[in-house]
Amino acid sequence: MVTITEKASEKIRELIAAEKREGLALRFGIGGRGPNGFTYVLRFVPLSERGAGDTAIDAGGFTVLVDAESATHLAGASVDYVETAQGGGFKIENPNPLWTDPRARAVQDVIDRDINPAVASHGGFVTLLDVRDDVAYIALGGGCQGCGMVDVTLKQGIEVRIREAVPGIREIVDSTDHAGGSNPYYRPSKGGQSPLA
Amino acid sequence: MTRYWSEGGGVVPARRPGRVLLLVTTQSYRAGAFVEAAQRLGAPQTVGSERPQALAGFNPDGHLTLDFSAPEVAVEVIRRFAARRPLAAILAADDEGVLTAALAARALGLAHHPPEAVATARDKYRMRRALAAAGIPTPRFHRFPLDADPLALAREVEFPCVLKPLGLAASRGVIRADDPEQFAAAFRRVAALLGRPEVARPGDELARHLLVESYLPGAEVAVEGLVTGGVPRVLAVFDKPDPLEGPFFEETIYVTPSRLPAAARAAVEGRAAAGVAALGLSDGPVHAELRHHAGEAHLLEIAPRSIGGLCSRALRFGEGRSLEEVILGAALGLESGGLERERAAAGVMMIPIPRAGTLAGVRGVEAARAVAGIEDVRITIPVGDELVPLPEGARYLGFIFARGGAPEQAEAALREAHRWLEFDIQPGPGAAPGVRADAGAERRW
Known about the structure:
The structure holds 2 protein chains of 2 kinds. Chain A is α/β, with parallel strands linked by helices. Helices cover 28% and strands 35% of the residues of chain A. Chain A has helices at residues 6-19, 68-74, 102-120, 150-165; strands spanning 2-4, 24-34, 37-46, 55-58, 63-66, 77-84, 87-93, 124-132, 135-142, 171-174. Chain A has a 4-stranded mixed beta sheet. In chain A, strands 1-6-7 form a 3-stranded mixed beta sheet. In chain A, strand 6 (77-84) and strand 7 form a beta hairpin. By secondary structure, chain B is an alpha+beta fold. Chain B is built from 11 helices and 20 strands. Chain B starts with 18 loop residues before the first strand and ends with a strand. The interface between A and B is large, with 61 and 73 residues. Strand 7 of chain A pairs antiparallel with strand 20 (442-443) of chain B, so a sheet runs across the interface.
């Protein structure tokens, strides 16, 4: 289901050896979805952490663990190791579509076609995280994070456009971790004075 | 019973509310709360702000671009819009838009504080004069031009005194001086602040003078109120348990209900109401600051808007309505539930900036959230941003919210939560390293 190229295998074996720990496996999975497509998890874990739903792949000298949820989105994917002028790195080719649910695909289309080109002019981007029942969960990034008008953009723009284009969607939920210290919500624009009491 | 319009299947009112125009700046902390409130009330809304909105093309009736520094021009834009989409209410969330809101409301015959009263309240010197003329105890005050010699002016003032810009909020530029040397230094510091183009536009009348007033020692409280048809109603009285003695006046904790004795609280409420009448504020929210001194409640300021920052989240009314729902409901003339605040105590801490620098990281947020009585912790300055403390700064690091029990418990919870927070502040402005890791289709080790 997942192909690890010879160059990638060689590099992974080298990295495992450098870890100087016995019984390590490579955990490979879908970490989420971003503006550039899927995001991936690649990390070493003890082989003993293999879960009941995990698929174990013998990659020649080490084991790759893929969780059940990720497996459905990684069928046919390949992991390669490439050298560039900036250094080496793993490159993942994944032929799977971001979404299989037709409503999620429709929402993604609206985001790609209508919303992101517009918010990009303000330095922001919107990522669809999931569609469950009739709720679309999104995250706001770039210039959207910290903008005082992000709620207006969400309620008066994103929500209006998605609900208009995808009638099955009832609600848009902003799931950005705005409260996290490294990912806060408000960044008042430059200029003017604070409205604080 | 509160009667809301709810498209989600909630209680439907006898009629759908009319359209509300919300004026907010793009730097506002208040946009989300007002937009959400309008949605909960079922009111169609248009947001007016000083910059075009990214997605305005998908909802042309939802946005207006308005220059708040040219209210007459903005009013014309609003009039033309209202001819196409009639407005039932106009409300400003921030100081910057409130005069435009008042002028536009008058032009359209909508209830709002009169523009004259708003203009008076926006100028601390004019406000002081109006309050003093009405016999309301306030600090003694003078207005001085910023191009005057501060050492010469120092001979005219009594010490200790407090220097204040006429038009800034959030204690920005407010400095106590105890002697002529401190006065001169503070004067020059305020003048430098008001000389910054991002603080005051060239020619801004409010940036040509500063106010100097006597320093009144004593505990400070804030009153949140709503005026309807000239009748003020107190929504909440907040204690400010941290002493505000200078040299700068960074506000931290607000707790309600006030622990003032009943008579003192009544005096505070009465004085705030007298201030509302003296300024001629008639329809809309008000936020007043008072200080107890020599057995009297002295009125420091009344702003013709609601409480700033995210502080309104500490307030709930009736069946759980937000402050913004109460304000919008009144502006739209909706039948409302009671204006009684919930029984439980509530508090908010505006997290102070401990020192200048660049925010490189925040630790302890989850531990702070886990403190009993804490509802939420919001860090509102992004990692990597410059931190500017008072008196020049205009932002807080974030907000902590507590609810439940007695006021003492809410205050203790806020202090305990704050103790858990650690801010990594690196010297000097600039990007903090290693705070974001974008993940794409290709990941390199």
